[in-house]
TrEMBL record:
One Gene Ontology term of the molecular function aspect: intramolecular phosphotransferase activity
Co-factor requirement: Mg(2+)
Family annotation (SUPFAM superfamilies): Phosphoglucomutase, C-terminal domain, Phosphoglucomutase, first 3 domains
Name listed for the protein in its UniProt record: Phosphomannomutase/phosphoglucomutase
Species name: Candidatus Galligastranaerophilus intestinavium
Domain of life: Bacteria
Stretches assigned to the Alpha-D-phosphohexomutase C-terminal domain: 409-487
CDD domains named in the record: PMM_PGM
Keyword set includes Phosphoprotein: yes
């Protein structure tokens, strides 16, 4: 047995690292033990008494990566060794792991128990050499602080095993369960034949989406053109990341050639959606969120309701202004799906989304990010509008964005240890004169979002890499380029200055 356990892969939102140096069977076995022991403590806090381990039940599933089954099996062994029980969902999209906590599962399968949490072996959109683990408990994803606690329990389980040198004995039950059929029955009942007359291209990127989405969308009445539905952890056709335009060449071509209404692309574990319009152009995350927001606002406005909608600092000001002017309540918050979920819960928001394609529906759904469900909502919106006008096009719903120029995301390298100081110094140097434009407000919830009369300039620290991410928007191309040139130049100057000072 090794002397130490490598826990470098524990992050803010999940576990994520390279296989096998950072994530491996040994780590997952002890994470399984540590997670269950942590869960015991949560029951004690909630109810004032510990829940017997043999009454606990956890669902486990995995993505299509070549090493996911090995990791899943070790994770399950770790859980079983505590006397807890497992429903093995096998190969399935991440949202179906989340769904397992809400699903109606027959009592014979559950043996009178209740699903207490889900563990999903996946590295989402990362390259094929990566793997990871997403964890939920009591119908909620673990927070950054809770993930740290699971890490501590994992290390404790490892140290206890070293000291006692005991042999693990399987105690809990381990059953396979078909969550895909359960999910498809539930979702198809919710939407009936809403997709009749809709033609959609679906690119699953040889990941998990192909197991569910094409058939489900057909059940909704759609004509579906499939791309790369067969799961293959080598990802032979393209990387499973719809946020990267280079991965969308095939679906763009297929949408145009087949004269489809739109296209849907999934990431590696199907919790992020990419959408292609009928002319073969990608629709960014903020534009997509506006489509969902306006549909929700129009539905609830008739009942006198004002829905709260959450998004992140990288999104266009057009999104926030249009939502507020249309009868909604838009809230800007930090980038990161963990932060967005917590803000939704705090504000009672019915909808949220990020530039990356995470979309969270609390309206008519459970509040977590499910790209397959998001596709169903988009099918419903397009079908509804086509009934009103056969000439309807998805682009008709994002016309407000035609009034502004929005830059691509800019990434500037900066060592993590300088980031805070650089941002603080930047804040002291920016002014109306510096940008030749009046500053209305500076939002500091996640970096600096400098709001002008005609747009914004944003700089924020990446949570995962030694870079700043920047974005710019203005009413004119020249204005957008001015904001970008000035803030990028000043940032590079300050990073260089701090680097020289540290030498």
């Amino acid at each position: 047995m090794q002397e130490t356990l490598n826990t470098k892969a524990f992050g803010k939102n999940d576990i994520r690292g390279i296989f096998p140096s950072e994530v491996n069977s040994q780590l997952y076995f002890y994470v399984g033990k540590g997670y269950v022991n942590w869960a015991k403590e949560q029951f004690s806090k909630m109810n004032g008494q510990r829940k017997p381990t043999d009454e606990m039940l956890f669902c486990v599933c995995m993505d299509a990566r070549l090493h996911s089954k090995e990791l899943k099996d070790s994770l399950i062994q770790g859980i079983l060794s505590t006397d807890a029980n497992v429903l093995d969902l096998g190969l399935a999209p991440t949202p179906l792991g989340y769904f397992s906590e809400f699903a109606k599962i027959d009592n014979e399968t559950l043996e009178g128990k209740k699903v207490n949490g889900a563990l999903i072996v996946t590295a989402s959109h990362n390259p094929s050499e990566y793997n990871g683990l997403k964890m939920t408990f009591n119908k909620a994803s673990l927070s950054e602080e809770q993930i740290k606690e699971v890490k501590d329990y994992t290390l404790k389980a490892f140290e206890n095993a070293k000291e006692s040198n005991y042999r693990t004995i399987r105690c809990g039950f381990d059953k396979e369960y078909d969550i895909i059929s359960n999910y498809c029955d539930k979702i198809s009942d919710m939407f009936d034949k809403v997709g009749a007359g809709i033609k959609v291209v679906v690119d699953s990127a040889n990941a998990t989406g192909g197991l569910v989405a094409p058939q489900l969308y057909r059940e909704l009445g759609c004509e579906v053109i499939e791309l790369f539905s067969e799961p293959d952890g080598n990802f032979p056709n393209h990387h499973p990341n719809p946020s990267d335009e280079k991965t969308l060449d095939s679906i763009k071509k297929a949408v145009v050639e087949n004269k489809a209404d739109f296209g849907i692309a999934f990431d590696g574990d199907s919790d992020r959606i990419g959408v292609i319009s009928s002319d073969g152009k990608a629709i960014s995350g903020d534009k997509l969120l506006l489509i969902y927001s306006l549909d929700l606002i129009n539905e609830l406005k008739a009942h006198g309701e004002t829905p709260t909608i959450v998004s992140e600092v990288k999104c266009s000001q057009v999104l926030y202004d249009t939502i507020n002017n249309s009868g909604g309540n838009a809230i800007m918050y930090k980038t990161g799906h963990g932060y967005i979920k917590s803000k939704m819960k705090e504000t009672g928001a019915l909808l949220a989304g990020e530039m990356s394609g995470h979309v969270f529906f609390k309206d008519r759904y459970f509040g977590y990010d499910d790209a397959i469900y998001a596709g169903c909502r988009l099918i419903e919106i397009v079908a509804k509008n086509k009934k009103r006008s056969q000439n309807f096009d998805l682009k008709d719903l994002i016309l407000p964005f035609n009034k502004v120029y929005l830059s691509n995301e800019v990434r500037l390298k900066c060592p993590n240890e300088y980031k805070k100081d650089v941002l603080e110094e930047l804040k002291g140097k920016i002014s109306d004169d510096f940008f030749n434009s009046k500053i209305k407000e500076i939002v500091t919830i996640d970096g600096l979002r400098i709001i002008f009369e005609d747009g914004f300039a944003l700089i924020r620290q990446s949570n995962t890499e030694p870079v700043f991410t920047l974005r710019f928007e203005a009413n004119t191309k020249e204005g957008c380029e001015n904001y970008q040139e000035k803030l990028c130049s000043l940032t590079e100057e300050l990073v260089k200055k701090h680097a020289q000072t540290k030498v």
